[in-house]
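Work Package 4 report. The design task specified in the project plan requires that, given a folded chain encoded as structure tokens, an amino acid be chosen for each position. We show below one input record used in the internal validation round.
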């Protein structure tokens, strides 16, 4: 038999250390329509509020609040959905909305002292989706939107003044954001099927990372450490791969791939380093390595790879130097370019505009310059 249940509960808080349990103006509102839905609310502290609305069957919500001015909202439409919300400290907000079946959302906000003001939002539409949001600190913003089936996301933030955003549309996509420090911003946008995005931002001030994958079976990984770092990865097509790592200070890393089965890898250390890879076509391979540690006075190097065509390979390595420039442009197919530089103020440029060419540049020392042009149209 169909069952409808609506409850309004006021004053669930208990104050530790008082002779008698006293209500502290906490509020909880529960509305349930359907069969065998469950809602469990525990509130301790002052002026906390929770709102639960469930329509369907076998849905479950658990809310635990301990602190002041905490707000939790849980909404579910469907069957066998689960929401868990755990909050502490002051002024945190958590909102979870699920439409479909067998979806799961977990939100945890845990702060200490005067830390306050974190916001977590999760919205899932479809079936068998899963989200986990964990915030420890203050002034976090975590936003997660998933539309489709069997998508999985995890957001973890430690510190303060960080922001993470995940949007996934399609099926079987995975996104992970791990952040520590302050003034960190990360975003993952994935549209398609079986895409995977990973961001690990463990650093200091003003770190920004962005991943966009459109297609099937794309992989993108970003790992940043330090301050004033930027990383951008954009893929459109199928089975593309991007791996970006950047350490120390003021480095910029960008990779853009259009086509199928392209591979881009960028590894950087030092300061004021810039690495860019752009690949259009299928089966292209690009790798850039700038590995001079900052305390070895390696900085201000730039490496650029641009490949148009199919099955091209470009390798660039710069180390132990200052203000080196490496540029590669390959048009058409089956070309190979290798550039290696160590020293100060070196410059190497390679242009290949036909098929099956091979170019190799190696420079050690200072103020060297090399240019190779093999039939560029």
């Amino acid at each position: 038999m169909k069952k409808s249940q609506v409850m309004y509960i006021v004053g669930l808080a208990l104050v530790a250390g008082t002779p008698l349990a006293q209500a502290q103006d906490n509020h909880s509102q529960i509305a349930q329509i359907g069969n065998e839905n469950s809602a469990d609310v525990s509130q301790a502290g002052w002026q906390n509020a929770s709102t639960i609305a469930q329509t369907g069957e076998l849905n479950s919500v658990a809310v635990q609040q301990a602190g002041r001015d905490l707000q939790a909202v849980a909404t579910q439409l469907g069957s066998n959905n689960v929401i868990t919300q755990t909050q502490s400290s002051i002024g945190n907000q958590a909102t979870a909305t699920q439409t479909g079946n067998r979806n799961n959302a977990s939100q945890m906000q845990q702060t200490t002292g005067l830390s306050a003001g974190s916001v977590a939002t999760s919205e899932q539409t479809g079936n068998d989706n899963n989200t986990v949001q964990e915030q420890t600190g203050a002034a976090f913003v975590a936003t997660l939107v998933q539309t489709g089936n069997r998508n999985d996301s995890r957001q973890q933030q430690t510190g303060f003044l960080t922001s993470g955003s995940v949007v996934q549309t399609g099926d079987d996509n995975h996104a992970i954001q791990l952040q520590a420090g302050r003034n960190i911003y990360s975003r993952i946008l994935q549209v398609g099927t079986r895409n995977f995005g990973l961001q690990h931002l463990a650093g200091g001030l003003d770190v920004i990372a962005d991943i966009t994958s459109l297609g099937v079976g794309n992989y993108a990984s970003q790992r940043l450490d330090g301050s004033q770092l930027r990383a951008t990865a954009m893929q459109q097509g199928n089975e593309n791969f991007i791996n970006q790592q950047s350490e120390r200070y003021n480095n910029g890393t960008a990779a853009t791939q259009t086509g199928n089965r392209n591979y881009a890898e960028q590894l950087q250390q030092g300061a004021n380093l810039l690495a860019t890879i752009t690949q259009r076509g299928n089966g292209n391979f690009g790798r850039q390595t700038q590995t001079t540690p900052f305390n070895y006075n390696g900085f201000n190097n730039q490496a650029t790879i641009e490949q148009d065509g199919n099955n091209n390979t470009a390798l660039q390595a710069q180390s132990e130097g200052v203000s080196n420039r490496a540029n590669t442009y390959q048009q058409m197919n089956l070309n190979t370019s290798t550039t290696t530089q160590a020293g100060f103020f070196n410059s190497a440029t390679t242009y290949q505009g036909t098929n099956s060419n091979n170019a190799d540049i190696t420079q050690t020392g200072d103020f060297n310059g090399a240019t190779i042009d093999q039939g560029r149209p």
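Confidence is low (pLDDT under 50) at residues 1-23. Validation will be extended to a larger panel in the next phase.
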